[in-house]
Structures are given as C-alpha cells and as structure tokens.
Amino acid sequence: MSIRLRLTLWYSGLLAAVLIGFGLLIYSVVYNSTMSDIRGELAKLSANMRVQAKIF
C-alpha cells in the first residue's frame, strides 16, 4: 500500500469522524432546544387547564 493511499484513507477517515461528531453535536443542540420549548408550552397548557378546571 502506497503512502499516498494510506494518507488518503487516514484523512478521509478523520474527515468522516469530524463530520459525524459535528452532526451529532448539532442534532443534540437542536433536539434539546426543541424539547425545552415543547415542555414549556405543555407546562403552560397544563397550568391553564388547571385554572379552567377550578372555575368549573
């Protein structure tokens, strides 16, 4: 195996690892942000329904 092929495989693997890591990081940030917003909206709806239930 030539040095050119070995370096190409090494850098390709390194690039793939960096891209996968970056993708997982972005996915995690977006997921946590979205879930936080959804939990906040559900808490507001729950509180609103409790207030309405007490009125009736």
**Oligomeric state of this protein:** single chain
- Discrete helix count: 1
Q: Tell me what portion of residues adopts beta-strand conformation.
A: under 5%
Helix fraction, binned, reads over 70%
Q: Indicate the overall shape.
A: rod-shaped
Poorly predicted residue ranges:
none
Could you give the order of the helices and strands? H
Mean pLDDT: 94
User: Given the helix and strand composition, which structural class is it?
Assistant: mainly alpha
Main beta-sheet strand count, sense and barrel state? none
Q: Could you explain how this protein is built, in words?
A:
The chain is an all-alpha fold and 56 residues long. The chain is built from 1 helix and no strands. The relative contact order is 0.06. The N and C termini lie far apart (79 Å). The model has no long low-confidence stretch (mean pLDDT 94).
Give a short synopsis of this structure.
This protein is mainly alpha-helical and 56 residues long.
What is this structure's SSE topology?
Layout: H1 3-55
List key phrases describing it:
single chain, 56 residues, mainly alpha, 1 helix, 95% helix
